[in-house]
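Protocol step 4 of 6: record predicted structures for both targets in the notebook before any analysis. Target 1:
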Amino acid sequence: LTLEALEGELRSMRLENIKTWLKEQMPDVANRIAGIGLNIVNLLIQFCFSLLLSFFIVFDGIKLRRAFRNLEESPVRDFYREIAPGLIGFGRLIGRAFQAQGVIAICNTLLTFTAIKTLMIQNEVFLSAIVFICSFIPVLGVVISSVPIAIMAVIQPVGSGMIHDGFLLALAAV
């Protein structure tokens, strides 16, 4: 046996081992991918239902107010008078928190859009939309929205040194 023949045999054995390993692992990988896909679909369905429910509440707000005011004349009026002021305050607090979160999301989106334009990263509107949506996810939203921006900065053709310098600067800031 020559050295070249021995190398060829080793390569074919490695390839066979890799093929065998891949065949064994494929069902597990497919199940994991299917599980992730199902989780994403489940999350989207839950989001759509919660959005639909919130629209129903908003559109039926006048009737809901009237129904709650009628509680004051019902047999549970003592309970209502005790609980109502606290619930009203809590509702206002939650509403103001959502308003503040919206203002922060808009500012964050505008700043990110400006940075993306400055760094000349492509798909700036799409990436800014991702930033806006993820701004409503506390803490983790910043990380989630940064991933697509980083991927776009790395995979796009090198048009300027600003992309890589800016990416490294942003990475150092995080």
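Target 2:
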Amino acid sequence: SDPCTMTNCEIGDMAANYCPHCKQTVTWTEAGETLSGHCYLTGDKTISAAYTITGDVVLDLRGHDITSSERAFKIESGATLMVIDTVGGGTVKGSGVEGEAGGVIHNSGTLNIYGGNFVYVAGKTVASGGVIYTAGNVNLNGGMFDGSAFQNTEKTAAGGVLHMAVGKITFTMT
């Protein structure tokens, strides 16, 4: 499949194998144990370890939830994760990795969010970034972020919702 490379465009209706982001025909596959190319959820998923993103991935939540007993996504340097929710109401929940940054998402590449809810669930002592820790680039064009369960228990902890170590963040307000 051809992963999306554009970062700012409208997410519209998805018909057949059309990607509203790429504006081209792609092959959509059901999300499984790994995520690659263009993938989507067909039901709620519970995972015990993060999805590690090493290439370019477009994930459509389609109104479903991902619940992780640690963080949900770890985006490696040079990789891109785009999250969309063409149905609405999809949620990604994570409680992080003890002593590490990024309760829901640990980003060292590029993260593009166009939809979905992202919630930090208390359970582990996360060093920083209750919802998102980034040392890469983040483009927020939608979504809801809830880091209210994050507690700054260490003097070095920062960012109940977002902690940016380095990189660039772009917010698109509508």
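Step 5 preliminary note on target 2. Confidence is low (pLDDT under 50) at residues 1-15. The chain has no helices and 19 strands.
Proceed to step 6 after PI sign-off.
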